């Protein structure tokens, strides 16, 4: 960046991702944004009958396998293919970098007699820190300069109490982005970060009193001065957030004092059943303790709801789903996707044990934006019986657990402390080695009886909240087991039928069309997904032909889904990059809905395309607008102080590592776009579009600086899949 603040002219996109885009210029300021020159058209709805862009094989040469078909006028060097950027995949976004995995691996290594090692595939990633040089005491952060001292530590406090010293020497200067206006102030009318805000100048002033003293004072958006603590009335959150758990409840969890009576009652019954050789006729002298799970309900003071009695949920073609995405699936990104048409969202995968231990970071994953608590779109061809759309909502929680007691207690705690949950999903697809070794994630695919027991128990203690499950094709390549597992989940295993327990009662099954061993390689197997989906439909017919009434599922144990026969919804997942992919899989596979992971990370407006049923050729300025929206969401959620700005920057860079893989629809020669295709070196239709397509992390930093200013000197960023390659050179 030039010393005068202008960005230098941009050259075409390099083939070498180690070379950042050094050519970028600012034109005369555009209305409201970055000043980059853009084509006049901001949004082009493509006509697939045009001669210069075709779908499939119309008038253009045959599509070359594995190569993105870019129009010749946008290619830079036809003899070389651009270096591939880091591998993008559902699972890396879904389940990488969890600290408890690292701890577990270290413990496992020590248990084998070896030294403890760092675990996790991204354990070498370091992000540095973004903190003020002098940290202001929180008792002074949101009050006026002359406010009476209120620090409980008094003279022993290790933080700064002199406001003017802090502002002069302790924090960096205010940001000039967003025209210097604090995003939280614009939304809420006052900023909860107070003096620590990087936009503090937009909500503060110096007032001279009658005695001549000058006082620094915080002000609201309407110009009124803040009286007392700027954040006392509305709490720490800068936006409306659901599922906020109190510190007191987390302490109760940490001390193992939070009540989980339903789980303990059910687990006690399970133990009695195991002691009787698996026979559900547990004789303990109590008339209420008779055989079967149905009679076991009498042991509860308030009998648990059966699966069919739970709150009804709905899936249909109009409800595309945003997949659970660890790291990228944070609230600001989900909020962006909801604004673009995502109808169902899921939390990042949370580990059960940290939730039960009241860990702050894990419980933060359960928070939902107010837009996620609204009902999903509901436009079925016919009215669905017993479904109340006004009671439905978009956001659900996904957990991972390896033992029944862990899953049950986590489920009970979640439904007690997080009231805004559409459903609770059990992750049975995570392929990461550490999760697998612990018996969680995809390891449960090899223990179908245990999995069924866990899901049935979760249903017992979840109250009105439905239970769903996400699975893979199997653990081993070329040996799929999902079809057999789906049959068990719908009808119940033989041992469950013999005991009169019936099916587990899951409301939905989501199948990712890859095996654990396959991980991220090759395309998702949608033919197999369709086979499993058709099995569920066939079971409806088979159910009517059941003559053995002992083995016939009890209607109360059937799913809370609103489709016919009480069968669970069946959802497909993998490699959806456009509305045509979505439509093809829905129609060919006879699915209830599809879940989207990488496609949403690469272009979050895929939900808009599904709703409008057409390709949307977003201009570079529109795409930059989505980045700005994410940044605003991030500052509102994580805060506008130095730490919040650093956190927002980190997660923005994580997202840009995916979004840079988007190849604009308007420069493609053949549609549809496909996962796995590698683009030849190309330039965009504008300098900004070229910058947004850069796979070099230094260019992602430039984009972040458009909204967040220069990075803190102690901040660094290492792209997920090249942790040992390079790190950010942040400006002071």
Helix content: 25-40%
Radius of gyration: 28 Å
User: Total strand count, please?
Assistant: 17
| DSSP helical segment count | 24
Estimated structural class:
alpha/beta
Distance between the termini: 14 Å
Name the poorly predicted regions: 1-18, 22-35, 39-58, 81-96, 99-123, 232-237, 280-292, 546-551, 722-732
Shape: globular
In what range is the share of β-strand residues?
5-15%
Structure write-up:
- It is a single chain.
- With 732 residues, the protein is α/β, with parallel strands linked by helices.
- Helix content is 31%, strand content 8%.
- The chain has 24 helices and 17 strands.
- The strands form 5 sheets. Strands 6, 7, 8, 10, 11, 12, 13, 14 and 15 form a 9-stranded parallel sheet that branches.
- The two termini are 14 Å apart.
- The N terminus and C terminus are likely disordered.
- Keywords: Oxidoreductase.
- Its EC number is 1.3.1.89.
- It is an enzyme of class 1 (oxidoreductase).
- This is tRNA-dihydrouridine synthase 3.
Structural descriptors:
single chain; disordered C terminus; oxidoreductase; about 725 residues; alpha/beta; EC 1.3.1.89; tRNA-dihydrouridine synthase 3
